[in-house]
């Protein structure tokens, strides 16, 4: 159902952090699943050559005939790429290993930073009635991630609760600031979400305290605890919300989605 108060077209959110293994893909999949539980229609756009979001939602590599690689290189329109998942209301534009060369192939295009922006604004997207598009970015600040942040209304930043977590963040914030001055003046920061937290662990708590001290309200109240069910879910090709709906991980992602939708629900883990 489309919401008459929302501006036309979906809200596009890039899930980005140039560090690998911080929870980008996990966050993209599970925030998407939680938004679907809230009645929203969601598209995940996988632009990571590793294609983990695609695998994690049951789209195996051999089934990925048309992917975001074709979309970026203008070799196939959006509606040929988008596919259903097992979850009603959740669709995916799968990624592929070919994306690792897309960077180089895109460089010569004078619109190179706007390829995803333009692709996601193809009129065909209106027919799906998406409320949200979540772009799962590669672990790099390369041209793919720049495309995501130029296409997006906001950036959602997962921050793993470990030593040096904040170091890489300044580079990401700098890139966002640069894009705001150039290609995407409206780009906002959706928020920073602490992932894999363990409040019994002093270091994890210290990272959270530092993040809140430095970034203030940019940090979501909800934190995502380290939870083994979260890491098991992708091998069953399911979001943790479906794999183990009552797990701490599932509950935290539901709380995060609600916080994003504006109703603040705090989860203490
Ligand atoms: P990225 O996309 O940033 O590289 P992933 O989302 O793939 O990171 O997460 C990296 C690894 O950590 C994966 O194996 C994932 O299953 C695991 N993981 C992510 N979040 C959690 C969590 N809250 N609890 C336990 N394991 C997690
Ligand atoms: Mg990933």
From TrEMBL:
SUPFAM superfamilies given in the database record: P-loop containing nucleoside triphosphate hydrolases
Role noted for this protein: Involved in chromosome partition. Localize to both poles of the predivisional cell following completion of DNA replication.
InterPro entries: AAA_dom, DNA_Partitioning_ATPase, P-loop_NTPase
Pfam families (UniProt xref): AAA_31
Domain of life according to the entry: Bacteria
Organism from which the protein derives: Rhodovulum euryhalinum
Entry protein name: Chromosome partitioning protein ParA
AAA domain mapped to chain residues: 11-189
């Amino acid at each position: 159902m489309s919401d008459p108060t929302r501006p036309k077209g979906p809200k596009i959110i890039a899930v980005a952090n140039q560090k690998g293994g911080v929870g980008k893909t996990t966050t993209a999949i599970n925030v998407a699943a939680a938004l679907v539980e809230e009645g929203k229609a969601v598209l995940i756009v996988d632009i990571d050559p590793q294609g983990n979001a695609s695998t994690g939602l049951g789209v195996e590599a051999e089934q990925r005939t048309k992917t975001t690689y074709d979309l970026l290189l203008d070799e196939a329109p959006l509606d040929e790429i988008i596919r259903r998942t097992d979850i009603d209301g959740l669709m995916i534009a799968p990624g592929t290993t070919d994306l690792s060369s897309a960077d180089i192939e895109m460089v010569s295009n004078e619109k190179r930073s706007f390829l995803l922006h333009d692709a996601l604004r193809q009129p065909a997207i209106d027919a799906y009635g998406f409320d949200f598009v979540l772009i799962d970015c590669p672990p790099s600040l390369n041209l793919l991630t720049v495309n995501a942040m130029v296409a997006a209304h906001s950036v959602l930043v997962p921050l793993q609760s470990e030593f040096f977590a904040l170091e890489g963040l300044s580079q990401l914030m700098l890139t966002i600031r640069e894009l705001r001055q150039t290609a995407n003046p409206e780009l906002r920061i959706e928020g920073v979400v602490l992932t894999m937290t363990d409040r019994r662990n002093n270091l994890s708590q210290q990272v959270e305290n530092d993040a809140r001290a430095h970034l203030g309200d940019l940090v979501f109240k909800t934190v995502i605890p380290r939870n083994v069910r979260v890491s098991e879910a992708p091998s069953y090709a399911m979001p943790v919300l479906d794999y183990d709906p009552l797990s701490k991980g599932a509950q935290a992602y539901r709380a995060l989605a609600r916080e994003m939708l504006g109703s603040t629900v705090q989860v203490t883990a």
